[in-house]
């Protein structure tokens, strides 16, 4: 059965992926409408739909408090949806990347197509199995550490410690960021180990399977890393350090966030503040109270997102740094964009530009929509819109207050951000047609 | 003398242009420090510097009220600076465009360089003369109409009517947007003719000399227009219509702006609201009171700006639509980006991307800087930062309140936006070097 699904996805990826996600969302919505999933006894279709979209798109934005609104059964369904969403996105995005690579290697050669397809199908099955294994191992390790910590340090009874351990491990690896505490992870501020375990788990899911696997195999030999792994890994580290430093410096004196904390707690908060916008989504402080300069930093980081074919959203770290290398090359007057002694193809660069510009268009469109529908402060709107599109889940608190139209806007953004960017990028790469003649060239003035 | 200057600029454009602007700004600052230029008798170097930068960069942002702070002598110096800035930017940008075209046509041929340079120098002198003539004629026509209107409709005495006519004609064509009324052009809301004359004059300067000249010569034969003229002209019209409609719809009911106006006044206001963000900078309403959705629209339009080699700022209409056509081509899977049956070269597209991304970086950097230095509302900060970088001059009113560091940030943005984008674009085009070997290609995952 699993193989049949893999086969189908590999053959018509761009139509099936959004449909698959819509299917999971529909089932999730129906399940979350069951009275036993929530405490209030009312039927609230909007709450069920929004939560199902947010969980399946592993975003973590909420219109109700996960800890108090949902029963353990409801919470279990949410956890299941995030696991399906996370596993789905990692495997499908990885498969599409393989497909694109195969397509590009194929064009120009005369290899019999069906033969290659059979080969890549075999490869695809292996990859999906490996993703499932990596995911389970990573989550299990995190769950064990967190459970022990919750029991022995925080004095939580075993059953709840285990449940919380599994929950936070899963929610970290999938970057879903739903929390079983009403104040998210703010209560763990004095427990650096828990925050660091969550942050590392978020990173493991966020960096993306292709990089995760290459790091596992070649972590001793960075010289052999692919360009994609270099861009993603070093880029991720660089962005983390910048966000960490910005959070620490900007918020240091802010009495509403970390101003009254000890130095160790400030550093702990800054670690979460540096990792979570890309795109774990657990909040260590009340983001409605951060300084404007932290708001800008966080919005930019949520826009960039994490690694490709991982559980994070955004335009992706590699896309962002490809654009940076493009600018460098243009500034140096070089025709070729080179990264680590490899040339980056024109098609790849164009796709990076297209993904980034379409993402900007989504953010502007979404912000405009909410500006028309509500009178909420513009920075809060832009923050939550970027969080939805980047499937981050951090919030300045406006999401629950939005009218139906506003929540639908956020749902569309979550879906586009989760399923849109990478299927679009793959579709673009797969559709590249060759024109056999060129029109005469003309040079409009730029700038 | 003029020829010597032209020769020098043509030979080392990228170093000389910023220096020339800095020179004019320095002289302007010294002149504006003369006590006879202002009423208050104090020496305020920051006011003189900011005004000189704003005038020379034809932006129109102010830290004091132009109408009441400066004496007629001071106002005359401001007018002179805007004329020098406007003429300077039009001629230098046009010359650089010719230089770039020559450079591109040269590369690949074996024409003796000095010979071609002599030819293009002759062409350059003709062009500068034509720009001066067009500018004077356009300003004279506008000045006459406005003077008559001020005298006969508004009952202004002849001397002041003439002074105001010349002032507003000049400030419109150069897109400088300084006003001799403390409420800018808000007082002319009931006088559609004046608003339309100003708007048309703003358009004439803003669209840029290359398009202006081509329209003059070939206005009957749109089929013969160059790609640049098509992109700029149709793009300008399209953006105007969108901004006009958005302003009219969003502000229709806003009691703080046009809510209480008659329908004719609303339309008049929307004409100015549609034209001025690109980048005339006269304000027909108090921009601090517009709706959030109008704020977003206006910010986007200020970012895009007007035509290349004109008196407007921003990334330019042609750059924006080149990016749109790039996205279209990628979405269609076409290797060539084509506009009106002409192929757009890869170098041109890369420069467009670079200009747009660097502009975004300037806006994010400037907004971040002001967020750190002040506690002003973020949307107001982003608005005035975009206005400065786009040399627009619209303001949500925060500019005069900024601390010295904030005003210096805006000055840097005005300078970068005015002199930076087009010299950078030209420098990029001129520096393109050819690598005679290619490195092996590699494809990172995008999105
Ligand atoms: K998330
Ligand atoms: K202006």
UniProtKB/TrEMBL annotation, chains A, B:
Record-given protein name: Potassium transporter Trk
Family matches, as Pfam families: TrkH (PF02386)
Naturally occurring in which organism (per UniProt): Mobilicoccus caccae
Sorted UniProt keywords: Cell membrane, Ion transport, Membrane, Transmembrane, Transmembrane helix, Transport
Lipid bilayer topology: Multi-pass membrane protein
Claim: Repressor is one of the keywords in the record: no
Subcellular location: Cell membrane
InterPro entries with a match to the protein in the record: Cat_transpt (IPR003445)
């Amino acid at each position: 059965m699993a193989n049949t699904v893999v086969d189908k996805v590999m053959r018509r990826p761009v139509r099936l992926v959004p449909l698959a996600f819509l299917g999971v969302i529909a089932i999730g919505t129906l399940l979350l409408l069951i009275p036993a999933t929530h405490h209030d006894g009312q039927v609230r279709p909007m709450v069920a739909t929004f939560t199902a979209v947010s969980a399946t798109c592993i975003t973590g934005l909420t219109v109700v408090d996960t800890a108090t609104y949902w029963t353990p059964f409801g919470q279990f369904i949410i956890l299941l949806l995030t696991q399906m969403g996370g596993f789905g996105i990692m495997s499908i995005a990885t498969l599409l990347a393989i497909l694109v690579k195969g397509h590009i290697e194929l064009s120009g050669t005369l290899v019999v197509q069906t033969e290659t397809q059979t080969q890549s199908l075999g490869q695809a099955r292996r990859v999906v199995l490996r993703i499932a294994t990596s995911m389970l191992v990573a989550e299990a390790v995190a769950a064990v550490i967190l459970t022990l910590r919750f029991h022995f340090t925080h004095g939580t009874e075993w059953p709840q410690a285990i449940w919380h351990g599994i929950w936070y491990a899963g929610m970290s690896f999938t970057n879903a960021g739903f929390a079983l505490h009403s104040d998210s992870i703010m209560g763990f501020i004095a427990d650096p180990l828990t925050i660091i375990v969550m942050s590392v788990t978020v990173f493991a899911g966020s960096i993306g399977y292709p990089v995760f696997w290459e790091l596992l195999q070649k972590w001793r030999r960075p010289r052999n890393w692919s360009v994609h792994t270099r861009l993603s890994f070093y880029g991720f580290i660089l962005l983390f350090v910048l966000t960490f430093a910005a959070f620490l410096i900007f918020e240091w004196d802010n009495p509403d966030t970390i101003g009254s904390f000890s130095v160790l707690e400030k550093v702990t908060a800054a670690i979460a503040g540096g990792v979570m916008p890309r795109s774990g989504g657990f909040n260590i402080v009340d983001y409605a109270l951060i300084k404007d300069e932290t708001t800008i930093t966080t919005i930019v980081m949520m826009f960039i997102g994490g690694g490709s074919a991982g559980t994070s959203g955004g335009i992706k770290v590699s896309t962002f740094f490809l654009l940076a290398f493009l600018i460098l090359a243009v500034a140096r007057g070089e025709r070729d964009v080179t990264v680590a002694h490899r040339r980056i193809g024109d098609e790849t660069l164009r796709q990076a530009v297209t993904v980034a510009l379409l993402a900007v268009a989504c953010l502007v469109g979404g912000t405009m929509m909410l500006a028309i529908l509500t009178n909420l402060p513009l920075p809060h709107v832009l923050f939550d819109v970027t969080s939805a599109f980047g499937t981050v889940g951090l919030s300045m608190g406006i999401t629950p207050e939005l009218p139906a139209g506003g929540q639908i806007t956020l749902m569309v953004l979550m879906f586009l951000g989760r399923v849109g960017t990478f299927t679009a990028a793959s579709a673009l790469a797969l559709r590249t047609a060759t024109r056999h003649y060129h029109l005469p060239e003309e040079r409009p003035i730029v700038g």
